[in-house]
Design goal:
Layout lengths: L1 E4 L5 E4 L5 H30 L4 H26 L5 H17 L1 H16 L7 E4 L2 E8 L3 E6 L4 E5 H6 L2 E3 L5 E11 L4 H13 L11 E8 L2 E11 L3 H18 L32
Antiparallel strand pairs: 1-2, 3-4, 3-7, 4-5, 5-6, 8-10, 9-10
Helix pairs in contact: 1-2, 6-7
Subcellular location: Cell membrane
GO molecular function, one term: mechanosensitive monoatomic ion channel activity
Protein name: Small conductance mechanosensitive channel MscS
Length: 286
């Protein structure tokens, strides 16, 4: 038990086997660490909030804050002469358990950070992720939400989103529209191509550059495919695709070009053939 000089020459008893200097040093370490943790948290939050979402900024700043506090506490305990190996071992075991239990959460968190740093898309962008197509509705720390074309909200974990091929439909200034219109073999292919090309050239939504293309493909005894390609501004791509298809088809029909409707071959099989004499008939179940 250490004795601390008191007032009037009296001595005060210190209940721990540490000196007053060690206690003051530990308090100083805790104070400096707490101030440093607050400063780092504030600076990191301000920096990230300008470049990422608030969720990302809050999560990373808090992780750094508590990490600095933990290291500061360990340093203060070591200054007091306390064996911190037990705390480190216990902390390691708890960390491993939490890491295994929260592996999915951690992977989604890390993927979310990379998505914010890379910024492949933003809220409001039309995207296609695998079989899901729609508009990005929200990007959070663990998952992202896409409002699909049919109005259904789809939630995609950031890890799956980060690993998937994502098509962002409005990153370029223009997108290509393509039709494959089947025409009968009795039709004048050159005339059909000329009609389609004239319709495109008259449409304001169809860009002159890159130049539109119209050609015949897949010629067979049943007819051919009239391939129509043109470019439209990305923000008007869907409207141009719907509008031009109806215009081209109407002009082809008005000019006497016969369009082949889609065909599906269906094979119908008759019942089991009559068994010959002497052949065994299958036994019915039951």
């Amino acid at each position: 038990m250490a004795e601390i000089p008191g007032l009037g020459g009296a001595s005060l008893s210190w209940p721990f086997n540490v000196s007053l200097e060690q206690v003051l040093t530990a308090i100083l370490i805790l104070s400096v660490g707490a101030v440093a943790a607050l400063l780092v948290r504030g600076r990191v939050y301000i920096y990230l909030s300008k470049r990422t979402s608030r969720d990302i900024a809050v999560a990373i700043s808090r992780i750094l804050f508590y990490t600095i506090l933990f290291l500061t506490g360990v340093a203060a305990l070591a200054q007091l002469g306390i064996d911190i190996s037990v705390f480190l071992v216990a902390g390691g075991i708890v960390g491993i358990a939490l890491g295994i239990a929260s592996q999915t959460v951690a992977s989604n968190l890390i993927a979310g950070v990379f998505l914010y740093l890379e910024r492949p898309f933003k809220v409001g962008d039309p995207v296609i992720v695998g079989s899901i197509g729609g508009v990005v509705y929200d990007i959070s720390i663990l998952s992202s939400k896409i409002l699909k074309w049919d109005g259904v909200m789809a939630r995609i974990p950031n890890e799956a989103l980060f690993k998937s091929n994502v098509d962002v439909l409005n990153k370029s200034l223009a997108r290509r529209v393509e039709y494959r219109i089947p025409v009968k073999e009795t039709s004048d292919y050159s005339k059909a191509a000329e009609i389609a090309l004239n319709a495109i050239q008259e449409e304001p939504l169809a860009l002159a550059e890159p130049e539109p293309q119209v050609f015949v493909d897949n010629i067979s005894e049943r007819g051919a495919e009239l391939v129509v390609r043109f470019w439209a501004p990305s923000d008007q791509w869907f409207n141009a695709k719907i509008k031009m298809l109806s215009i081209i088809v109407k002009r082809l029909l008005d000019a006497g070009v016969e369009i082949t409707p889609p065909q599906r071959l269906v094979s119908l099989r008759e019942g089991p053939e009559r068994l010959g004499e002497g052949e065994d008939r299958p036994q019915s179940a039951g």
